[in-house]
Amino acid sequence: MPENKSILRAGEELKGLRLRLGMTVRDVTDLSQKVVDSEGNEEFRVSTTWLSEIENSDSVPSIYKLYSLSIIYHLKFSDFLQLYGVDTKKINKLQSEIPQTHLTSVEVFDETGTVTFPIRFDQAFDRGKTNLLSRVVEIWGEVPIGVIQHLDVRRSMYGYIGLEDRTLYPLLRPGSFVQIDAGIKKILPLKWQTEYERPIYFVELRNGYVCSWCELQGTQLILVPHPGSGCVIRQFKYEAEAEIVGRVTGLAMRIVPPDEPASGETAKLPRRS
Question: Which of 219, 123, 126, 124 is nearest to 165 (CA)?
């Protein structure tokens, strides 16, 4: 629960907001009646006595009355909650830290915000080839955060795993997008026990890109494929023929391949003649 001093400041801010809008306590009470009528619930009523108490004491308003004030003052409900120490932006992060396996949903509390996102790809983009996302985007735009959250591909580096690139299949499926830490351009001497812990690197070759496990042996950069991929080990002269773009730190991957029905319905068989 917020400290009393913080709550007093919240009440003062509410009062200052009302005064800046040129509203009297009676004006707020009268306007709250419209919310009561709309919602059919008297809990949304903001009385003159209640509002004076909230503005001048350490009382905490109910969610119903705070909701009414957000409508009357034309501000976001989340902003009013934050006055009293409740930051809705932290909800998704805190939910992700729950240790038990659970169902979750993507919930947006501020749909008015925007995020930079590619809105058109280069028409010459070859989906079969692995590439950097920045190389295949033709137009960037501001997309409502209600559509896409926690993603700013203009300020981060992302790669696309080409449909023909099966180097780390089935660990990484072709058609996936990966996040790249461009600050790591050297093979890290990390100890790993499973394939999931083994560092993955995005590598630039003379004729394109590849996403792979890597080993450095002298001047040779060894690209190590997944044992189940069917691909062979390849080696290149380090820095002359192959450079490390960065380490892969995140992944957005399809579980169902592009050519497989995603709806769970049985694919239609051709009619027999």
Answer: 126
